[in-house]
Amino acid sequence: MGGPRLRAARNVPARPTNGYLGSVALDPTPSGLHYLDPSPLGALAVAEHRVDEPRATVVAIHGGLDRASSFARVSRRLDDFDTVAYDRRGYQRSRALGPGDLAQHVADLARVIAWAAPTGPVVLCGHSFGGLVAMTLAARRPDVAQVVVVYESPLPWVVARPSPTPASGENPAREAERFFRRVVSDAAWERLSPEERESRRLDGPALSADLREMTQPLAPFELDEIAVPVHYLYGDQRSAPYYHALAHRLEASSAYFSSRELAGAQHGAHLSHPDLLAREIRAALAPPSPLAHEH
Fold this sequence. Notes:
295 residues; alpha/beta; Rossmann fold; 10 helices; globular
């Protein structure tokens, strides 16, 4: 199941990191993603990296307590793709929109796609909660993308998590700190500057809204509603057994799902292993082998 394991390429981060929440992406990013000011989508902050003669447009959707600029390293490795990312509503430069529910995030993603690549082709790349947003849109509108690539997106409606997502607390700022300490580490939080800690706390309301969506009793879509290829990626580090079981269940449900385990990758693979993620994005869009039609 899931094809061969890929050996992690050597990627030296700009500073020590223990996952995406512990890293500080460049903002703006020279020769990579840069924010558009003013944003073409109003209060929804958009960043882009455009190239000459792109094969397709990659639209990247970040996870909880993250931001568009965290995809900068991946975008620099996709020199044959346009890359567009955005701060989801409630996060960073899109805080003025306030926290959103899943339906609002799905609608925002549809707006970004319509602006970024009105004639296609499009690859959706969702990290964690961002993958849930991408798959939900794909289930409702399979015409919006040629392929969906997701990394470690939990789907508790498909496979229950060993440790269920904690309910959001009454203090969003405190919840953001607890989330960071739980997902990354206490030591990583202590290494953040006061400004970085405050930035994470200000994203607390949006994070709390994400956590509420993850504890909803009804699934946002059924697996048989997916009619576009979905390439599910996960690392072999923390929570690997859960993601392995989930990937197996997805592949068993439909031929539209494929998966791969990335050796050495943690939850923040878009920062720690951008070469591997860029390689998977290219492979996902590659045309199928002629031999595939002979079986």
